[in-house]
Design brief:
single chain; 353 residues; seven-stranded mixed beta sheet; 11 helices; 15 strands; 39% helix
Length: 353
């Protein structure tokens, strides 16, 4: 089964061999306080910075999931209030979760097809939360937009959920203070690990909030990371697999070119369709890593069912879009021949060629 599901999605072919290597080398039983683990942690973070163009003065942490990062941000970085801008389900869920821990959190929605506009020059206490790639509907905030938001709000702390784009497209890391993503999407890895990236400004904010009452308090995590350790027993296998994948993949700028080219080819492909259309029409806000495809509900149901019979797993439509859409991941681990097989399958459903 080839998974085009937008997470968990297809993993790299080498993963089974990497797991065997981990077993042979004793990684599966590695003590997370040992020198061996600290060396693994340090090497993995070094590779993350090199391959994803992360500034050297940013700090990287390991967590269990992007959802845990929501909690860490709410507990350890937001002092009194936060401003969540969202146009889809996952951004809204982040806001709803934060509101449970931070009553002063504010949610501001914007339309799917619209470019986000944020008032400039807010106060120093501002904490802005954005979803760079909204997996539920297939939209993204472009790098140029994120740079503009940073420029217009220099005093704010900006946190960005990049779960469906990190390691797939080049992100303007300096344009935000917190980035986070789970690895089961563009990293091409099994679920169970996430990356959280913090700027020096975010670390200063963490120290100002001074929250240290939870096992995943960022203050404690930062203290442990100075020794290349984590507060709790981490997903050691996941970190090892991440290290192996990072050694294999090309720098993010090259990966971005590949993904962007494939995205353009998918757009051209669906322009020829009579019965299936790109749900997001505005190219300026359309995701390059997750495509939402709309059509008649009966046809969508038939396509998903027959695709599965052919060994092609498509993503379900999300929430209110469940019945009349499906989603296609455009992640680096997918091979061109697999994409070609899906296109050949979809051509059977009333395409002009």
């Amino acid at each position: 089964m080839i998974s085009f599901y937008p997470g968990p999605s297809r993993t790299y072919d080498e993963i089974p061999n990497y797991v065997k290597d981990a077993h042979r080398k004793g990684i599966l039983s590695m003590n997370h306080r040992s020198e061996e683990f600290m060396a693994l942690c340090q090497k993995t973070i070094k590779l993350l910075k090199e391959k994803l163009s992360i500034p050297s003065d940013y700090t990287i942490f390991f967590t269990s999931s992007a959802t845990e990062c929501w909690e860490i941000i709410a507990q350890s970085l937001i002092s009194k209030t936060s401003f969540h801008y969202y146009n889809g389900s996952f951004g809204e869920k982040w806001f709803d979760y934060t509101k449970r821990l931070v009553p002063g959190a504010t949610g501001i929605s914007f339309e799917e097809e619209k470019i986000l506009l944020i008032p400039a020059n807010k106060t120093d206490s501002n904490f802005i939360c954005l979803t760079q790639n909204e997996t539920s509907n297939g939209t993204e905030l472009s790098p140029s937009l994120l740079r503009a938001i940073r420029k217009n709000n220099p005093a704010s702390i900006i946190a960005i959920d990049a779960t469906s784009s990190m390691a797939g497209v080049e992100l303007p890391i300096k344009s935000a203070d917190v980035w986070f993503a789970s690895v089961q999407k563009c990293f091409g890895l099994p679920a169970g690990l996430a990356i959280m990236i913090c700027s020096p400004k975010a670390i200063a904010q963490m120290k100002s909030v001074n929250e240290n009452t939870h096992y995943n308090s960022l203050l404690f995590m930062d203290e442990m990371m100075t020794r290349w350790q984590t507060p709790y027993t981490p997903n050691v296998l996941g970190i090892y697999l991440l290290m192996r994948v990072l050694k294999k993949v090309k720098p993010i700028r090259q990966v971005d070119k590949k993904i962007t080219t494939r995205a353009t080819e998918w757009v051209d492909f669906f322009k020829e369709s009579q019965n299936l259309k790109l749900y997001i029409r505005n190219a300026a806000v359309r995701s390059r890593t997750v495509f939402t495809i709309s059509g008649d509900a009966n046809l969508i149901s038939e396509i998903k069912s027959k695709a599965k019979d052919q060994g092609l797993l498509l993503g379900e439509g999300y929430g209110t879009l469940k019945k009349n859409t499906f989603r296609i991941a455009n992640f680096p681990a997918l091979k061109q021949k697999e994409i070609n097989a899906l296109k050949k399958f979809l051509r059977k459903f009333d395409y002009k060629f």
